[in-house]
Amino acid sequence: MKSLQKYFPILIWGADYSRKTLANDVMVACIVTVMLIPQSLAYALLAGLPMQVGLYASMAPLILYAIFGTSRALAVGPVAVVSLMTAVAVANVATPGTPEYLTAAIALAVISGLMLLLMGFLRLGFLANFLSHPVISGFITASGIQIATGQLAPILGIKAHGESFVGIVHSMLPNLTNANLYTAVMGMVSLAFLFWSRKGLKPLLCWLGLSLRSADLAAKVGPVLTIAITTLVTWHFGLADYGVSIVGVVPDGLPRLSIPGFDADLWAALLVPALLIAVVGYVESVSVALTLAAKKRQRIDPDQELIALGAANIGAGLSGGFPVTGGLSRSVVNFEAGAETPAAGAFTALGIALAALLLTPLLFFLPKATLAAIIIVAVVSLVDLATFKQVWHYSKADGAAMASTIVMTLIQGVEVGLLVGVGVSIFLHLYKTSKPHVAVVGQIPGTMHFRNVERHQVVTSPDIVSLRVDASFYFPNARFLEDTINNAVAANPAVKHVILECPAVNTVDATALESLREINHRLRDGGITLHLSEVKGPIMDQLKRSTFLDELTGKVHLTQFDAVASIDPELARRTLAAE
Amino acid sequence: MKSLQKYFPILIWGADYSRKTLANDVMVACIVTVMLIPQSLAYALLAGLPMQVGLYASMAPLILYAIFGTSRALAVGPVAVVSLMTAVAVANVATPGTPEYLTAAIALAVISGLMLLLMGFLRLGFLANFLSHPVISGFITASGIQIATGQLAPILGIKAHGESFVGIVHSMLPNLTNANLYTAVMGMVSLAFLFWSRKGLKPLLCWLGLSLRSADLAAKVGPVLTIAITTLVTWHFGLADYGVSIVGVVPDGLPRLSIPGFDADLWAALLVPALLIAVVGYVESVSVALTLAAKKRQRIDPDQELIALGAANIGAGLSGGFPVTGGLSRSVVNFEAGAETPAAGAFTALGIALAALLLTPLLFFLPKATLAAIIIVAVVSLVDLATFKQVWHYSKADGAAMASTIVMTLIQGVEVGLLVGVGVSIFLHLYKTSKPHVAVVGQIPGTMHFRNVERHQVVTSPDIVSLRVDASFYFPNARFLEDTINNAVAANPAVKHVILECPAVNTVDATALESLREINHRLRDGGITLHLSEVKGPIMDQLKRSTFLDELTGKVHLTQFDAVASIDPELARRTLAAE
């Protein structure tokens, strides 16, 4: 039962489900549905897919997440960054607008869903850790810039294509003179209204008498209002005849469940993008879920989240949708509207289904420029250059990883940008640890504690060099270790003992073991004894599996104080007694 | 002057060069020359190049290394593993036997020489550290197996091709029935004699009255003896007419210096193999140089070695040779014969030049099977599976990296094998640090020292959870850190203080900083104070560049003892006083 609850969290909250919770969840679902319809349509457009696919991707995934997910407030569905990644990945294997394009998008959802499931069952969630905070943050910023730039084209009524910001700008510039005046005016006004509605609508509604919380939620209807007004205007003035691009026929009805055919070539071509989408979607979703859960002291199970998102994506694929994940803005609305259980998500799915059945004919005259404006307003909040400044100030290495992610994403597109970012983070980490900080340490008077001679008032013995190497001993720094100890000894001809204080040594790999052996032999040949101190339990266990401890000329001491006291007991005790 | 000496070590030893040293170096050069001629011819064969190219690669590089190198005993020239890597790289861009093939091999020497120079000037020698001990050892073992297997073909008088052990075996098996009897007998006898001469010739020579040292050196003439005898036999019995493949015309004379034309496509195609050859050659050479230098307490400057090997390879390319590096066996002979300065290498180059001028006609009837036998005997000592057993016993991660290097090299060839090995080492390191060892620590009675509660008899306070995380805080383990602290607190409801003891924390990157912030906020919301202790200087400097220290609910203490004493002074002092 316990493990069944682990894999089906619905059994936990479903057991206590009351009529009151039901009423609350239904109310929340209405609000989220109104917000989700425009987003679903817009992100389908962003992914280069027919509008109804956006609605399809907002039904089955929500129900599946309600069954498997551990977050009470997460709302899954199409989101900006994943939609962009979908567009890029699918455009590589099919032409936009063709049935093959749709097939590939569906396959992408299924593949990344399967990968998430697999990662969940094999406990491979740690893979997501390789997307460091600066890389994911830089990636989202660059994606936001790219999406917003790309959507300027439908707002101006021109064509643009390209897999990166630079590519899009390059393809847009020569077309700027072909902008359609009616489209441009409609797009700009929508954009202005949407931006205003984010900040100005709430005070206005408060002033009109709504409570603060209601006003906050009602202000989220800005996009729906924009859709309604621009659709009416376009219909009334027949703007389609003046070159305003409209949505046209959106097939109504519910998606048909079907198992997509397996095409080995297609799947092979989509493997890498599917993995990237799975990991990026997961990281985005889990961080939203953790943030919201922390506010109510609820728990998120990251491994179960992999399974839930995997199920949601497979569900999206089987019901004709494209890749989905937990989105920030809609989850926040869900949370603030008071969603108490994931059932709110399931009811939202019902709301979307009703919309798909009844509302699609009303969308015929909806200008694509309006959807583009909705996307732009949604993504500008993703662009966060303040974080870059902070990160750069804190750590140049992290700043460099973030900058290269942003720059490479803008120039080469999402996949290259992400991979370069991960590569740069890993490389810079290895580079840093290959030249670690090394401190010569001495005893702080009055204590048994040893610290850097350059930072603290300490006592040292002329016979002894005590070194604290602030790194694990492993292959990138094994040779550095040899050089450091050789140089330290060469600089102190009087030295008879070298003590390596090892509290910072978390690993000694086979390469470093060879180096320690070499160091021990060379010091021995020079008449110098090598000691170790504060070697941690797991490291001792490992060293015992080699012959190093037998070869070691000195001893392994529990503490640095013990090591010094065993060589120069007089000095050690005098220093301890001093004030 | 100092810096001139740094870049031209010849100025250091050249200043004290005496007539006695000269006489000694010339004697050493004679011995090494006799050994180097067969090796040079054999490795040219291994690389798929005309024989004289092997001689060319043993002249200019030796002179250049004598000028720039810091090792007194290193002998550079063609070596087995690099010759194999050359053959594989060049066969990808040209057909063996064509002038384009030679051009590509020459370009490869120049490119990897330039890369080594660049790495020397930019102090990028640390790149070589990424080849961990298990990876390079596994790579050399697998290369040895591949080379020995490939050379069975000329010994049997059959054809074989393939870029990996598996490929070679696959191409050889169907041809086994075509083996040429005369070639096979000649090859097998040569092989048997060479193996015997390594072990049996020395005792025989001692028995004949030579001193131990002379016998040791004279035993190295085994290959020359084999060449002389098999050449005579082949000539006398006209074995070429019976299908024994012979070397034929080797053009005599010295190489013409020429600057190879720059072909952008060719260079682009050779970039990755050139880098791998540069790094592998450098690692092999430096480890030989360090081993020999340690025996005489001499110093090696690893950065200058990059420059010296770079110059040697560029010299090889400009004089019609192929990639070279410092070889183990010839350097050991050089060392044991008593080489006192790198001038011995320059004199060896003269010896090789004389051979190129005078001896090549004598090589006409030399059977290729003899050269193959020389190669096999040279490389079987590279195959070292005992190291694998040791490494696997010491560390499963290192063992896995070594095993995957060996297996992938055997299956996919040298380049894939090496890259997979490096990738696996890095991945396993990151994986290990993503789930670090965490110890709950307590005070050891009678000391100020804190250790793992599970390994030592320690005293703890019910109010305090003291955790020592044995890892740097960085992106692969940032989320693990959050989970660990959440779980530790959840398991101890009485806890009011969490102390993170940080002696093992060598970095806190931007991702981990975010996690620490989150941890601090969540503990604060639960009424728990977060303290840090034993944070190292460089980490404090970095944390001060963020707002974290202002947000921290507790304090940063110099020692873990101070931290506990500030919360529960009574307990800390009582424990310190206890025995």
UniProtKB/TrEMBL annotation, chains A, B:
Residues spanning the membrane: 21-37, 43-67, 74-95, 101-122, 134-156, 176-196, 217-237, 266-294, 306-324, 344-364, 371-388, 400-428
Membrane topology field: Multi-pass membrane protein
One GO cellular component, as annotated: membrane
Any one GO biological process: transmembrane transport
Keywords linked to the UniProt accession: Membrane, Transmembrane, Transmembrane helix
Matches recorded under InterPro entries: SLC26A/SulP_dom (IPR011547), SLC26A/SulP_fam (IPR001902), STAS_dom (IPR002645), STAS_dom_sf (IPR036513)
UniProt entry tagged with the keyword Manganese: no
Domain STAS residues, every copy: 454-574
Subcellular location as annotated: Membrane
Domain of life according to the entry: Bacteria
One Pfam family cited in the UniProt record for this chain: STAS
Coiled coil (residue ranges): none
Record-given protein name: Sodium-independent anion transporter
